[in-house]
From TrEMBL, chains A, B:
This is 3-methylmercaptopropionyl-CoA dehydrogenase. The lineage of its organism: Bacteria, Pseudomonadati, Pseudomonadota, Betaproteobacteria, Neisseriales. GO terms for molecular function: flavin adenine dinucleotide binding; oxidoreductase activity, acting on the CH-CH group of donors. Pfam families: Acyl-CoA_dh_1, Acyl-CoA_dh_C, Acyl-CoA_dh_M, Acyl-CoA_dh_N. Residues 464-587 form the Acetyl-CoA dehydrogenase-like C-terminal domain.
Length: 594, 594
């Protein structure tokens, strides 16, 4: 596999030509300094770090994995991981989009997201150490007391300390209402927390001086179900340097992300402090979870990009067979496999999904920035609604497409793709978890259709589709864009009809929503990507003839590929949604094994 | 993961109620003794062996892998593999469908295929040792001289010796025309063979006393390209016990099938003997390859079945959330996840693909039996044509669906699916290679559309579709089957139209065939499975009310699921095929990286 090269030109395209963040960002209070030059210099610095420090550690990290010492409960990360993290802190990256009040650099999400994408491409297992830490920062920042913020945030921002999210228990992941960990008050404002947490990413390691666990547990007499869950801060080490009784009990042996320590965390009367209101832990945790879901989507995106780069280089070098229409490279014993239509289909699928995903995440990042900083509350609400609607889409659609892309990249390599040293199969294994954690993609689908679309009678959805409708109207007379605007308008109308039909059916039978959800999410995903590709084509047409025609022509050609070869999936989705719940619900439980 | 249970009831259904092999087999010369009782007793013995011996070695084999000793060039297989192989030989399984003239039991393929499926479910890495050996048996049996047959076949049939296929070289896999290994005549009828072979499955191991390598190499002055390739027998040990200079140079580190030794084989003037005609090695090798392609399809099928069994058991046990329509198990803290529509969608996808695949392979196995033994040459030709047409479909469609099924099984497990000890992710890793080796699935698609369909102007395809047409005609007035026969007839007509359109387009531009191939293969796959499901429903309706209604009702319900939720993929395929080659071929090579 070739060395990873950060797609800086495409970041520039998406940020400055497509989404045009500079039209918005410097006008937001607090982001005045986030000019295009600042973005560029940060992205270049991050690219250097990801290309030169993180990417070379990716394969060795997978082979070595993490080491657990049962005697000391210590975990050692693969060679070089700790040093790379130290350098990352030295460069100030943990502080990038953190609050200046606690030492942060106060940069927007629309800058932080491309940085995250690069980390995911270069070394997704490594990226999760600072990634989880940032989640802990966000939760404490949003819900902590002033004292808690003063205590924990500066060290999390500098990267001296890291953080985790401790939700899952052996018997519950999706259904946190079943959670059993207990928190008993000590009488001094602290709590004594006991329980077993599993699947704790970056749960124990040797990178930072302290680890701040955010732990869900139940207070005595707490209501059953999710209404009785509270959130606690449980540091590995106390102020006085003494060890808290929160220990790593084991590391999981996993399919991928082997260089990330997925820990069993045992709390045995560990001392912790309530964060936020009692019994409101789940909503506090959702501050982290929504960010984590977008972070998952970035993993699908980043891995798709890495796999594309690997497959493209191989397809240009590997000589095998002649082009169907005659010899392409007469000076060589065979033609490079990029001449074959089916190899191009795989490469273009990777490219089309990746570039549309990059556009979507940048659009969402800007909405997050608006949601946080815009002086107008209606603008903040609009942005928040779009983020709420599209977060499950970004998580599930981007990770499913990332997995498809990673598998295609591996397929381009033929037998060599199955061999570890090439690195292509690692991308498949590393990507696979992104479809599962932070809420399986099935859960995302129910979140989208049930909570985000049907619960408010389509209000958030209409806000979104109005934007697409407006785009279609604006470009109605644009002959060049007609090949995109036509199908996009048609799909937009169909999505409205389908949403109405599913909503009516679900009103009578909730299983109809459950049955439609996964297909519906892909439908909305395609609507979003079709919009992104039409917009990218619009920008590209306007820039043709200005000296970078290859770049812009590639956008138009890839948009055509997307509409011709990927978007038709909606024809199947419309049919399967229409066929409803009955085909899923009719088989008796005991008949499955027949 | 639960212990593997062989699907004996479903084998019985497919063999005796659907395909009705007993209407054909005992009438074929040489198969008189292959009665239903004989089938049953063999299948029960194989089930016992696979459930009790092979399945328990599957997880440990993956963890341990094979060991290579560079000093001795020896390979040690994981603990228990050798002993299981000894028992397999003792039970006579290597001889199952081999020629009685060489110690074989002369049983039909329609019995051998279910046995193969069980091995693939229980332990696909192990199954490849006897699998490759059987391929070598077939090639020598078909193309060897009487002396060669007498020398090698009895030991291969007994299992004392095993065999390999040595095709691939570092610079060529798909394109064997680039092959470089050389064979110089020694003057005594033997040849001195030099070259490096890679990706040799079961290439070196400790299970058998000798390994018979079948090696492709070029004679001096051989024509370039595939027309100058010859096939040689290269034993690891000579008659006198002396070691031949064919050595394992290394084992590959792979994503999956880790318990199978994927060897680099170095030939350094190794002594070998020509098998078949000079320069006709590739067609000799295709004897093995076609069988190997069906064997690959069986891997997708077997792994899909294993994953389904694992996921089904978990979905019945794992408690998480309540059913959307209200509490299902009030005595439990949550409902088993099988109540959720999306979990059912995944389980039913596994079930529908697996059972249709089992029907297809049994149908093909019977055609192989007819092709080999039928006294009427026209009947043999019809059978051979159907096998030729559907071999690439069985290979690619079944392995792609197997991979989908394995991924869904893992998804049902949520986070636990990613953890190695559960075994679900191993099935994903083990299945992945089946889409690549023995000709990538992209190559299968070109084989189907180019060689099998267009080359004879659709003659083989029409023979096949006539059978489906006849089924539809016969059941035209059958109200119960109308929900299947209607869509099947429609699809049948569409496939005819699409084939014609693609053929016309490809006549002008060969890339049109290359661009359509992968989608076309899935289209034919769905046509085949839709036919299988309609036939299974037909049989099931006739058997209702006879005491096994759960079994037969499950067939009808699963057929409905297939038609409602999987078959609609053809709506997308029709569109993508129609959109042609241009969207794939327009992007300039240098524009990919833009």
């Amino acid at each position: 596999m070739p060395a990873y090269k950060a797609p800086l030109r495409d970041f520039d395209f998406v940020l400055n030509e497509l989404i045009k963040v500079q039209d918005v960002i410097p006008a937001l209070p607090g982001y005045q300094e986030a000019t295009q030059d600042i973005y560029t210099s940060y992205l270049e610095a991050a690219a250097q770090f990801c290309e030169n420090e993180l990417a070379p550690l990716n394969r060795p990290g997978d082979e070595e994995g993490c080491h657990f010492d049962a005697a000391t409960h210590n975990v050692t990360t693969p060679a070089g991981f700790k040093e790379a993290y130290a350098q990352y802190c030295e460069l100030g990256f943990p502080a990038l989009d953190c609050d200046p009040a606690y030492g942060g650099q106060g940069m927007p999400k629309s800058l932080a997201f491309p940085v995250m994408e690069m980390q995911c491409s270069a070394n997704v297992a490594w990226s999760m150490y600072p990634g989880l830490s940032h989640g802990a920062y966000s939760a404490i920042h949003a819900h902590g007391s002033e004292e808690q913020k003063a205590t924990y945030l500066p060290k999390l921002v500098s990267g001296e300390w890291t953080g985790t999210m401790c939700l899952t228990e052996p018997h519950c992941g999706t259904d946190l209402g079943l959670l059993k960990s207990k928190a008993e008050p000590n009488g001094d404002g602290s709590y004594s927390i006991t329980g077993t947490k599993i699947f704790i990413s970056a749960g124990e390691h040797d990178m930072s001086a302290n680890i701040i666990h955010l732990v869900l547990a139940r207070l005595p007499d707490a209501p059953k179900d999710v209404k009785g869950i509270s959130l606690f801060i449980v540091p590995k080490f106390h102020d006085d340097g003494s060890r808290n009784s929160v220990y790593c009990g084991a590391l999981e042996h996993k399919m991928g992300i082997k260089a990330n320590a997925t820990a069993v965390i045992n709390l045995d009367g560990a001392k912790g402090w309530l964060i936020g209101e009692p019994n409101k832990g789940l909503s506090c945790m959702f501050t982290m979870m929504n960010a984590a879901r977008l972070g998952c989507g970035m993993q699908g995106l980043g891995i798709g990009e890495a796999s594309f780069q690997g497959a493209l280089a191989y397809a240009k070098e590997r000589l095998q067979m002649r082009a169907l229409n005659g010899v392409h490279s007469p000076d060589k014993p065979a033609d490079p496999i990029i001449v074959h239509p089916d190899v191009r289909r795989m490469l273009l699928t990777q490219k089309a999904y990746t570039e549309a995903g990059r556009a979507l995440t940048t659009l969402l990042a800007l909405q997050l920035d608006i949601e946080e900083k815009h002086p107008d509350s209606a603008a903040r609400q609009d942005a928040a609604d779009l983020v709420a609607l599209l977060t499950p889409v970004a998580k599930a659609f981007m990770t499913d497409n990332g997995y498809t892309a990673a598998n295609m990249g591996m397929q381009v390599f033929g037998g060599h793709g199955f061999i570890r040293e090439w690195g292509m199969e690692q991308l498949v294994r590393d990507c696979r978890i992104s479809q599962i954690y932070e809420g399986t993609n099935g859960i995302q689908a129910i979140d989208l259709l049930g909570r985000k679309v049907l619960l408010d009678q389509g209000q958030k959805l209409r806000k979104f589709t109005k934007q697409i409708h407006k785009f279609c109207q604006t470009n109605e007379g644009n002959d060049k864009l007609a090949e995109f605007v036509g199908p996009l308008s048609k799909l937009l109308k169909e999505v409205g009809d389908i949403t109405m039909a599913v909503g009516m059916a679900a009103f009578k039978d909730k299983d109809e929503a459950g049955a439609a959800a996964t297909d519906y999410l892909r439908l909305i995903g395609h609507l979003t990507y079709a919009w992104m590709w039409a917009r990218m084509a619009e920008v590209a047409y306007a820039k043709l003839g200005q000296g970078e025609d290859d770049f812009y022509q590639a956008k138009i050609t890839t948009a055509r590929f997307y509409y011709a070869k990927l978007l038709p999936e909606v024809e199947a989705l419309k049919a399967t949604i229409k066929n409803g719940a009955k085909p899923l619900m009719s088989l008796g439980e005991e008949q499955f094994a027949c």
